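Continuing the batch. This is chain 6 of the set; chains 1 through 5 are on the previous pages. Same settings as before, nothing changed between runs. Recording input and output for traceability.
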Amino acid sequence: MIRAPVEGDFWQVDHIRPVYSGGGQCSLENLQTLCTVCHKVRTAQQAKERSQKKKSVAASKVASDISRFFFRK
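Output for chain 6:
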């Protein structure tokens, strides 16, 4: 970015409340400007959180279904 600057490489728009948490609205109240580096870091962090949330939901579904431990006669 420093050696060969190109318009559009420095700033990006980010959802304050992530889309996966219901922040899909593109109103100005839910948008912020971040530098490209900060946006990549934030996006990676949110991807990790989203993945952990999916795993947790999947684990709770398996853990709450104890019917597979019972035998029918």
